[in-house]
Request: fold
Amino acid sequence: MPANARTFSFICGQDDFLVGRMGRKRFDELAGAVADEFSSEIVNGFAANVAEVETAVNRFREAVQTVPMFGGRRVVWLRDINFLADSVTGKAETTLKCVEDLQGVLESVNPEETAVLLTASPVDRRRSFPKWCEKSADFALADGGDDAEGLGAVVQAEARAIGIGFGPGALELLLVKVGSNTRLLVEEVHKLAAHAAEGAVIDEKSVADLSPNAAQGDFFETADAFFSGDLQWTLAALKRHFFAGGDARPVLSALQNRNRILIQVRALADAGDVRVGPRGVDGLQRAGASYAAGFGEAAAEKSSYNVFTQNPWYVGKLAGSGPLPSLRRLIDNQREFINAFEEIIRRSDGQEEVLRDLAVRCLASPGARAV
Reply:
């Protein structure tokens, strides 16, 4: 056997769903090439403590050393490994010794007799064992990343695999609504594909109508209606929300979150740091280089208090969907939201009425969107 032969497969990443899915595909390929189902074995590598790490490694060793019942090649999958992470269990001395033993088992594997697959998430790739695997194994990194670009690549790849595409704004809206949950994103792609005609392009309206608001619990319809300045749409959205048994507080939270973002965009626009137009906000990244440090430790945390942590497409969508309200109007909105919250505390049985009154006060006056 050549000295640089890849004797086993190692798939890792920070997203357990992507790692598990890639691992399952690889295992099915390997298992399909063996004589029978008794020639393949799956060992659980998930460990809550060091004792379970020892158990997992010992079971894996036994599986690798087991002779096939009917001869031929065996396939062994050590799946869901979590003790390679930067965690209390992962850093324990006993765990590190078990990982050394695991490496010894892998070094002794004869790929002609046993095909070995390991899948691990999360993984601290600074450690010696993952580095050794990169050099010694058929190595694959399953991460798509938790930023918009990485998640978008995962969604686009899934869409291509089932023969659909996304129209303008549809993919971006899906990422905003669902967030960084890759499992849910993949399921949403399949749901949207089932709703559309074969080979169709998914449009933004389909995503808005069919995909859940899983990210941060935002209530898109009511917030969209309110900030569009459409009073009738806002009242209808509130009616649907409360008819379904909804509560006023998450709606107020969604309205406040969007209003805070627009206040910051309005201030940046008035200062000449950004330009707001039909195509969104131009110059936001440049403005972030100047002002983001002013948010201190919160600068890296996604929050409506910091416009520079938001999805740029989402900010552009909010600001570019119509005339941007004046700073005075936005501050008045915020006061109205606070007053409505206090009113709801005083009379919790009149939540829908409180929000309807809020909408009328803010939107019924001429030029409410832009005054």
